Amino acid sequence: MSTVNSFGAKATLTAGGKSYTYYRLDALHTVQLTRLPFSLKILLENLLRREDGVSVTADDINFLVNWDCSAEPSREIAYMPARVLMQDFTGVPAVVDLAAMRDAMKALGGDPQKINPLQPAELVIDHSVQVDEYGTANAYELNSLLEFQRNRERYAFLKWGQTAFRNFSAVPPGMGICHQVNLEYLARVVFTTDDNVAYPDTLVGTDSHTTMVNGLGVLGWGVGGIEAEAAMLGQPVSMLVPQVVGFRLTGKLKQGATATDLVLTVTEMLRKHGVVGKFVEFFGPGISALPLADRATIANMAPEYGATCGIFPVDVETLNYLRLTGRSEEQIALVEAYYKAQGMFHTANAKEATYSSVLHLDLGMVEPSVAGPKRPQDRVALSRTAESFKSQLPSLFGPNSNKNGDRQIVRWQGEGGHLAADEETKSSKPTEPIASIKDRLGVDVDKYLHHGSIVIAAITSCTNTSNPSVMLAAGLLAKKAVEKGLVTPPWVKTSLAPGSRVVTDYYEKAGLTPYLDKLRFNTVGYGCTTCIGNSGALPTDVTKAIEDHGLVAVSVLSGNRNFEGRINSDVRANYLMSPPLVVAYALAGRIDFDFDNEPLGKGKDGIPIYLTDIWPSQEEVAATVASSIDSSMFHKEYSTVSKGDVNWQNLKFPSGDTYGWEGDSTYIRQAPYFDNMPATPEPVTDIAGARVLAVLGDSITTDHISPAGSIKLNSPAGKYLTSNGVKPADFNSYGSRRGNHEVMVRGTFANVRLKNKLAPGTEGGVTRLLPEGEQMSIYDASVTYAERGTPLAILAGKEYGSGSSRDWAAKGTRLLGVRFVLAESYERIHRSNLVGMGILPLQFLQGQCVESLGLTGEEVYDIPGLKAMLDSKFADGKVITVHAKAADGSVKNIQAQVRIDTPQEILYYLHGGILQYVLRQLAGKA
């Protein structure tokens, strides 16, 4: 590592008996430094250490030191994270792209070995396990077996990547989710190089919830896979110096309130405040009352409140957590010494920083809450949930819903249960649809289901399973419920998917596992299940009842995402909540339940049992946490984390520097982005004669654009798989097929809840081919437009591309032939991804939208000034005129802002995408 070191910041630090080189912030000799937020000091150190006079200059450093908290972001910096974190849904296509880049490098006459991660790239396989089996003792074993059967080819490809690429490692399936493994094991807090240079651990991740590690004081956030690949290949992250919103916490949580209730409150407040593209930093006396796990829960939800990150400072609690989770004493000593030497170690009397704006929350004001039925920021007090659902119900009806709501409602008081898959299913192929409850119990559930019936109750990974207090609260509630004689209704599909194997260890030590099992919350896997859409099929008679009567069925889950169509295609309303509330609602069996006034059932003595009778106290939870968790559990589980189970160990995989692509593979296909790519980019041209593929409303998520869940038989992707000999039982999910662009382009805009205003009255990936007006799938229309040589466009409302950092939402859009998107506003990651795929993001001027301008989407669109604007690198501003010509010949001239936000993004766009730019650079052609 070489640096100009013009500020004389290079120095020596001694910690744990070792000497390290580090770059002192106090070498800048300015009082301004003391008022900088913690997160910006991390950025400042990054620039100070990497000052080379080219990508990082002394002016960049001085600008950040003198940060104007109230200024709109305008200064670009080149930020280099220490490492990259991936999960398998996003990791497989990233490795596919790297493998394709090796082939392309060879075609350009370069050395394929140049294509290697230059920064450590760590992948955790956690997104592929599905909840096929549940509520039985062998649920985990069967789901794991099915996972390997479905994903053998993908996993073999990742094992090839481990041997073919330097600086790339994979944590096998069944070990936990990437965010919790990162928090408990991978995160260093202070990173060190082979030559003993010490600096803050930082990262970007291909999952939005990379921010969970912000709770540990580690700066990191989610990016699209394409941007992460560029970072792996040594490209700095081009970013504007952000505004930083301070969130002051005081007081402590009251009885009955959980960390989940806190995070839903914080999410609601910050989303209302507006923090998209901003850093959020938590401070104040209240943070000392928050365990590290609570901090991680809040940090995890940064994508839901819209921020780039949600960070807490390093303090004594950080050190305690590192010790609990089995980090070495040498590493803990380095973390303490480093952050104290840099003046960044938080103490009770620490001087508060200056922020762009400040919010305040008294933790004592937090009340039990849920969020739903469609968005994480839509918090509802638990006491008002039934009322809220009833008011939301008309907006949740489907095309065949019974809007009168006059179906018979019968309360179920019988024994719960689930029919296990039969022996034939266990031994071979993935499960067929789950057998009916009537076959198992002789119960006709049809007459028990109604609008609001809960058909999925999932303690699922990510937000909450990293938090022992809420996990043990769920176990304690289950224990009390079982002891009182309560049961879960049979139509509720229950599941427990911890984010770490340590959860199972402390459940066992606390003696709570038998009670969770009794309520059918058996462990189904250690991975991201229901929250990512891997909830598995519902029992056949439950699905039939929902379809026959057009019911608005409900899921309750302890995750962080509840967007339309994400959890399960049979479920139209989804609510986020704490793990103990998931258990409570599973007992209730319906979302319109009044916990204050309705009993959950009768106890063994015939006395009605209310939620307050079984809700554990804070003291009870705290005592259980203290007696059930110790560092030996973390040592035990993470000592073998890289080995995997026998399935992983016995998995055969190919060898070689370049991958041997299989022409008939339906999982792994050579990425097409470099096909026939010239050594130098072709000039950008104006856009002419574009047709609109879809006109979309507000809050269109990346799940709407590129779903991760099940593949429908009659969808374009389903037809493709069938034509390639894949049986419907073996379709797997869109997420697992992300290494195959043929599946993913057909799945783009295929979400079952998507509403395209060009095809009114429809749901799903439907459009009208123009000018004919024929209704067809979005994919089929794109093929016809491609044959005609017609460029395509998307019109959208506010918050376009919110949700997951899903690179296929941009990749698929590009492969459909979309040249530009015109929206009212964008979420940060998706806008960046669009540019990274060579798609032009345009934004309506303030106060304008599709409706106000009278646009129908049937117009023909031209952007004549694009080439000149880019040639001049926005010398005359970023507002461009879009011409929309109607069928009658009239033309609307629309003023739009070009959302290519940094000079580096101009280069990416000119090269047709970020990967093409990086490849040409590595080949010496850029």
UniProtKB/TrEMBL annotation:
The keyword Ion transport does not apply. It holds the Pfam family Aconitase. Transmembrane segments: none annotated. It is an enzyme of class 4 (lyase). GO terms for biological process: tricarboxylic acid cycle. Its cofactor is [4Fe-4S] cluster. Residues 74-589 form the Aconitase/3-isopropylmalate dehydratase large subunit alpha/beta/alpha domain. It catalyses: citrate = D-threo-isocitrate. InterPro entries: AcnA_IRP_Swivel (IPR044137), Acnase/IPM_dHydase_lsu_aba_1/3 (IPR015931), Acoase/IPM_deHydtase_lsu_aba (IPR001030), Aconitase/3IPM_dehydase_swvl (IPR015928), Aconitase/IRP2 (IPR006249), Aconitase_4Fe-4S_BS (IPR018136), Aconitase_4Fe-4S_dom (IPR036008), AconitaseA/IPMdHydase_ssu_swvl (IPR000573). Residues 719-846 form the Aconitase A/isopropylmalate dehydratase small subunit swivel domain. Pathway: Carbohydrate metabolism; tricarboxylic acid cycle; isocitrate from oxaloacetate: step 2/2. Its EC number is 4.2.1.3. It comes from the Bacteria. One of its GO terms (molecular function) is metal ion binding. Keywords: 4Fe-4S, Iron, Iron-sulfur, Lyase, Metal-binding. Catalyzes the isomerization of citrate to isocitrate via cis-aconitate. Belongs to the aconitase/IPM isomerase family. This is Aconitate hydratase. It comes from Terriglobus albidus.
